[in-house]
Write a structure and sequence with these properties.
The longest helix is centred in the middle third of the chain and has 20 residues, at 80-99. The protein has one domain: Double Stranded RNA Binding Domain (2-Layer Sandwich), CATH 3.30.160. The model is unreliable at 1-6 (pLDDT under 50). A three-stranded antiparallel beta sheet has the order 3-4-5, with helices on one face. A two-stranded antiparallel sheet has the order 1-2. 35% of the residues lie in helices and 19% in strands. It has helices at residues 50-58, 80-99, 112-130; strands at 2-5, 8-10, 15-20, 36-42, 69-74. The protein contains three helices and five strands, in the order ββββαβαα. With 138 residues, it is an alpha+beta fold.
Length: 138
Amino acid sequence: MSTANPDFLLREDEVEITAIRAQGAGGQNVNKVSNAVHLRFDIKASSLPDEIKARLLEFKDQRISADGVVVIKAQQYRSLERNSFAAIERLRTLIAEAAFIPARRRATKPTRNSQKRRVDGKVLRGKVKALRGRVSDS
């Protein structure tokens, strides 16, 4: 089918696409033509790496059922092919989010000079504000 990440391949036999009737307005034709798409992808039975499977199953996403099946409904377009492509793109995006690992943050200390600059700025600001007081006649 396509690559979501260079490390793994999304296989066509693991994705089940079913044509369904779209909801909403569409006139008489909407009751005859099945243009919307239901995409089903079983995370546990897929060939994805185990760490990506685990991260996908941890997602708090309403498209992922309790038994680990991703269900995506696409009905934005009027053609079955475009809706199929849109559903696959959404699945790719979901997998790419699970594959992305943010860099760990390393705690650092502010330098002595930056601390001094900060305090000097605060002292200067305090002096400016002190000058705003009432002027006495003495």
